[in-house]
Automatic annotation (TrEMBL):
Chain ranges of the DNA/pantothenate metabolism flavoprotein C-terminal domain: 6-215
Identification of the protein by name: Coenzyme A biosynthesis bifunctional protein CoaBC
Whole sequence portion shown: 185 to 403 of 403
Species name: Fictibacillus arsenicus
GO BP terms in the entry: coenzyme A biosynthetic process; pantothenate catabolic process
Gene: coaBC
Claim: Metal-binding is one of the keywords in the record: yes
Cofactor binding mode and count: Binds 1 FMN per subunit.
Length: 219
């Protein structure tokens, strides 16, 4: 058998958006297509890892040989991610998890009445922060999707959430972030190193991220 760089390693990747239900016909979501996360799952599999992909609703095909956990809401993503956490060697949180969810979920379709409709939202639990708090041997990688102050906001997430690396992407740039086939990322590690990359396909970006992770594992 060929020995692969991630043979015997367990990698969990989260991907896609979450959906926060408001009533039986309406929900809040975001523009994540799942492409970046699925590319990481696929690349990790090709490097020999045992991969678990926790995914929100997307229209993508599951990469072959990858174990999948399908979730809808931020709450479900929290529960599934935490339940698989202990076993993992590497966790990469690429999902675009809703930060807020409706306080009230109507059991019947909300009927049209007034000219305005005010909806109250409450914070969801921060999955990445919870993983950071429970971290044992795992290498924990987060993402930061920003539209301004990319480097500062990305660094802030690294420290606040006890991460080993954070991948920042400026989602306001053309050809970067949500939905596109390409991404322009910056990798910031706990040791303070900062590596900006040019615009790459999401497959290439996935391999660059895993290269950095494997580098960290050697130490
Ligand atoms: O799916 P694609 O169309 O390919 O697009 C890729 C992407 C833009 C979604 C991806 O590259 C990306 O940036 N993912 C993170 C999006 C995001 O939610 O960023 P954030 O800065 O809001 O969150 C920071 C981190 O906290 C993320 O790792 C997120 O998974 C995590 N988080 C956020 C909220 C929450 N309740 N729990 C979390 O764990």
């Amino acid at each position: 058998d060929q020995i692969m760089p991630l043979s015997g390693k367990k990698v969990m990747v989260t991907a896609g958006p979450t959906r926060e239900e408001l009533d039986p016909v309406r929900y809040f979501t975001n523009h994540s297509s799942g492409k970046m996360g699925y590319a990481i799952a696929s690349a990790a599999k090709k490097l020999g890892a045992e991969v678990t992909l926790v995914t929100g609703p997307t229209s993508l095909e599951i990469p072959s040989g990858v174990q999948v956990e399908r979730v809808i809401s931020a709450k479900e993503m929290f529960d599934k991610t935490i339940s698989h956490y202990r076993d993992q060697d590497i966790v990469i949180k690429c999902a675009a998890v809703a930060d807020y969810t409706p306080v009230t979920v109507h059991s019947n379709k909300f009927k049209k009445k007034n000219d305005t409709w005010t909806i109250e939202l409450k914070k969801t639990d921060d999955i990445l922060k919870a993983l950071g708090e429970r971290k044992e041997h795992q290498i924990l990688v987060g993402f930061a999707a920003e539209t301004e102050n990319l480097e500062d906001y990305t660094k802030d997430k690294l420290v606040r959430k006890n991460l080993d690396m954070v991948v920042g992407n400026d989602v306001s740039k053309e050809g970067s972030g949500f939905g596109s086939d390409t991404n322009e990322i910056i990798m910031i590690k706990k040791d303070g190193s900062i590596r900006p990359l040019p615009i790459l396909t999401k497959e290439q970006a996935a391999n660059e991220i895993l290269e950095e992770v494997m580098e960290m594992m050697k130490r």
